[in-house]
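Please check this today:
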Amino acid sequence: DCSRAGLETEPVILFDPSPARCVGILCREVLDQQTLQIVAIAGAGVGVVSVLLAVGANARLARIKRGIRALQGASVRGEMVLPAEELVKQMDALANEVDALRSAVAQSVQGVGVVRFDAFEDMGGHLSFSAAFLDGHGDGVVLTSINGRQETRIYAKPVTGAQSQYNLSEEEQEAIRRALASR
């Protein structure tokens, strides 16, 4: 008897085809129409979700493959992708260049100071001047132009450590102070 616990069942007879004899009787539960629809809808939902996940995974895989092809193509052409050793060498070379540039900048003119003045009491317009050009160490030159009625004279004095071995006028000293302050 295949009826149990109020479920609808149907007998299935199992035969052994070789001697043509009955092997046994199984009971199979028969699902009602509503339960079959629920199972079918759930199966379809699982199938749709599986398809969406597969499409998303395929799109990600395609992006990864494009990236790998781009990197491989770049490495063949000698672009973008460099071994780590090469990057370290380039960084060392850049560090050396930065050090050389810092040294060059320290020796270039970094401060300029100009003082205009009247060299003679009877001359107006502040046509005479002293101009100091100093590097990062306070080394450079101070130029002085003395303008008179008949002639103009220009003097150049070397400056080392913001000092000169030659006597400096007040205007030249002020030009050096201004150059030091402008760095």
